[in-house]
């Protein structure tokens, strides 16, 4: 699907949420909230509205967004219950093809991260390969909680940016 922004602006609420509801993983409330800001002059303006909504949330809300994300190479990948978007991202970065050493390291570090911070490790998988993801996961386990909360939200925005790009034509493609 690749609509232009005028088509997006003309969508009834139900279709807008059906199509764009997972640009932030399992958080259709964000899409539903920004709908009232139509018409968006460009895709960048729609993206900015999402970003501003997230930034205005209390810290507990930001942590809630992080908690809506499935672990990388976690249970949902193994059981085939990831969202379509997440599946493509995780498969593309090699999360489905870890050797047993990598898989156990990933599981151990994901667990350690969650125990330390109370929310899961989030990274824009499309921008990294598996070695890089493991390295970052290990390094980020050492950060302070507030730093990681902000860092995770930055990654959510990168994931959102790429998901929006696959759904809506960017202005320079019009
Ligand atoms: N935990 C985590 O980072 N999950 C994800 N990252 C990404 O790019 N897609 C995801 O599902």
UniProtKB/TrEMBL annotation:
GO terms under biological process: purine nucleobase metabolic process
The keyword ATP-binding is assigned to this record: no
Domain of life according to the entry: Eukaryota
EC number: 4.1.1.97
SUPFAM superfamilies: UraD-Like
Subcellular location: Peroxisome
Annotated pathway: Purine metabolism; urate degradation; (S)-allantoin from urate: step 3/3
Catalyzed reaction equations: 5-hydroxy-2-oxo-4-ureido-2,5-dihydro-1H-imidazole-5-carboxylate + H(+) = (S)-allantoin + CO2
GO molecular function terms attached to this record: 2-oxo-4-hydroxy-4-carboxy-5-ureidoimidazoline decarboxylase activity
Oxo-4-hydroxy-4-carboxy-5-ureidoimidazoline decarboxylase domain ranges (all copies): 9-165
Primary location group: other
Pfam families: OHCU_decarbox
InterPro entries per record: OHCU_decarboxylase, OHCU_decarboxylase-1, OHCU_decarboxylase_sf
DNA repair in keyword set: no
Transmembrane segments: none
GO cellular component: peroxisome
Role played: Catalyzes the stereoselective decarboxylation of 2-oxo-4-hydroxy-4-carboxy-5-ureidoimidazoline (OHCU) to (S)-allantoin.
Family: Belongs to the OHCU decarboxylase family.
Protein name in the entry: 2-oxo-4-hydroxy-4-carboxy-5-ureidoimidazoline decarboxylase
